[in-house]
């Protein structure tokens, strides 16, 4: 699906590049983008809560990613820290 701010020519080029990557390349790219997104989210949590240590930042990140219900099921004793 083409983004509203992407021209048809740019979209076609992007699709062609993704196709050239192959399945393994696309999976690698997706993993890299996911990790970079998690790093940016950690940085945001750190900026909002400089008092949080590394473990607290991870709990806040996981709470954001999973939602309160699933987070609580996975870590029933962990604090529900504000992200």
Architecture overview:
By secondary structure, the protein is an all-alpha fold. The protein has one domain. Helix content is 73%, strand content 0%. The two termini are 31 Å apart. The mean pLDDT is 95.
Number of helices: 3
Largest sheet composition = none
The span between the termini is 31 Å
Strand content: under 5%
Helix content bin: over 70%
Structural class: mainly alpha
Shape: elongated
Write the H/E string, N to C: HHH
Q: Write down the overall mean pLDDT.
A: 95
- Unreliable stretches (pLDDT < 50, length at least 5) are none
Radius of gyration (CA) equals: 18 Å
Key words describing this protein structure:
83 residues, mainly alpha, 3 helices, elongated
Brief rundown of the structure:
This protein is an all-alpha fold and 83 residues long. The chain is built from 3 helices and no strands.
How are the SSEs placed, and which strands pair?
Elements: H1 8-48, H2 54-66, H3 68-74
